[in-house]
């Protein structure tokens, strides 16, 4: 294969203690947790706003237990509560709904208040490694390429972009070579109270009740509906395929809007609704994951395994969506699991000396990831990664060589509850029903 390298004459713009790549909840929490420990932190986000999938893909609620994640996440929830854009805490419910349109604003104000330097519209394009240390991160910015030389890096890109660019091994899809989890596009429609003229452009699918893609509709009291529509057959970590996924998703969307206006769905016709907004980025359930010092497995998650170097508690059920079935055919595998530990070693790419990973791209098999990818859990990983980075800086060692007990102590002092049993209130009811259903099975 032909290769090319980034030239040497790119200006070095900053030398922060910690560079956090990716401004989803993993990245926001990592950046704030590190800044609070006194680190000089640069948070880099490719889009125009913070909030990750919630801001740019329309994912409209936190799954995973939203309590005991840590004080930083408590502050985020408090900011959303103050703005009255988050649903109340009900641990027996799957998700805590959020009005996503406010998230970018609220999160930028939050991180700036905490002293984080924020660089939007900037993507990690490449890295340079000296041995196992990444000494330079190249950003593609509005002003061209820039070089930044951080001491430590947290990769919270959702797709392990930094780890990949530094040459650390990554995986995507199932362990047996199966496809990655499917994507979904979110779009909204408004009730105009006037009959619309349905339009099915050429090349867009004409759906029947049997052929429409799996669709979920969330109705708001103000006349808006948010539609989530499944898209299959593409990998989010292949440039051609991701581009094709976006193209196909928008064709599907035109077909689905036409279907909703003409046929309706769930016993309701949407003949007076018009398309009002479309998420700029298709929802990506699975990108790349690192291979860490520990690979968290489905068995670990299902068994509620404890780890000595636990830094986060995962609480959400396994949530595997059939990757090759477009229509609603049962969502997939959604088995409740007991609260389980996520060990620090799953956040550390094998062989790396100054890189931590947080969020859905940490090290685990596909089924484990289907659980730990949710945003409250990603936030918890961010807090752990940010604090671990600071401890490593203070001790002058690699993240894997820090004193784990000291990190766990810091986490506890900052509101992180690592006691699994404390979290069992979350989805207790769901787990109880699952046990009852199993007992009744002849
Ligand atoms: C359809 C769908 C429905 C879902 N439903 C829920 C739900 O109800 N509740 C829930 O909690 N979770 C849900 N999830 C999962 C959840 O949204 C993600 O797994 C979660 O957002 C992961 O958080 P993160 O911080 O790791 O990554 P992300 O939220 O994806 O954030 C990563 C950020 O990094 C940025 N980035 C990427 N590459 C670069 C780069 N090279 N340089 C700079 N920045 C970069 C991105 O722009 C993004 O802002 C859903 C996901 C999908 C797709």
Describe the protein's architecture and organization.
The protein has 442 residues and is an alpha/beta fold. The protein folds into two domains: 12-172 and 289-431, FAD/NAD(P)-binding domain, CATH 3.50.50.60; 183-278, no CATH class. The chain is built from eleven helices and 21 strands. The protein has helices spanning 25-36, 53-56, 71-82, 103-113, 161-165, 239-262, 298-302, 366-372, 375-395, 404-413, 428-440; strands spanning 12-14, 18-21, 41-44, 61-63, 95-97, 117-119, 123-130, 133-141, 144-148, 152-155, 170-171, 183-191, 215-219, 224-231, 273-278, 289-290, 310-314, 320-321, 332-333, 340-343, 355-357. The strands form seven sheets. It has a five-stranded parallel β-sheet with strand order 6-3-2-10-21. A four-stranded mixed β-sheet has the order 1-9-8-7. Strands 13-14-12-15 form a four-stranded antiparallel β-sheet, covered by helices on one side. The longest helix has 24 residues, at 239-262. The protein is globular. The termini are far apart. Bound molecules: flavin-adenine dinucleotide. Flavin-adenine dinucleotide (FAD) binds at residues 21-27, 44-47, 52-53, 57, 59, 61-64, 95, 123-124, 156-159, 161, 184, 228, 283-285, 359-360, 373-375, 378. The site of flavin-adenine dinucleotide has 38 residues, from helix 1, strand 4, strand 7 and helix 9.
